[in-house]
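Suppose you are handed a protein chain with no further information: no name, no annotation, nothing but its sequence. What can you learn? This example shows the usual starting point.
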Amino acid sequence: MADCELTNMVMVHDKITNRVLVQERVRSWRGISFPGGHVEPFESFVDSAVREIYEETGLRVENLRLCGQVHWCHAESGRRYVVFLYKTSDFSGRLLEKTEEGRVFWANLSDLLASPPALPLARNFQKYIPLFLSDKYSEAFGLWTEADDSSLIYK
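A reasonable first move is to predict its three-dimensional structure. Written in structure tokens, the prediction is:
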């Protein structure tokens, strides 16, 4: 059976300022995206998302709502990479300025949606955003290779 890597990503929306929390990632997936990370052994998907947001931002999140998932499958090996997408407006705590994953800050959603983007987004991140914003989709699926990972099909 093919290997599978499970991850999460959370859109934290501040209803007062109408901005979203982003992270300028400096490690493996470089650029601006919503915070998130890997699911640890024996951990639920929601618990992993709550933990990752706290570790990477200092904020405690609650009432996460599943928006769907992004599902990449390696075209040759069958290796899978799955990102569970959540969103919430329920958060508390003090925002950290920076962690080992990178700087975190509030941004206007319009800056993420602009074409070209107003911020240096992580590769393919802009393709994830429709799942956060629309109830029309539950999954984005794509085949990838080391040379190309540009196409996602929304379902």
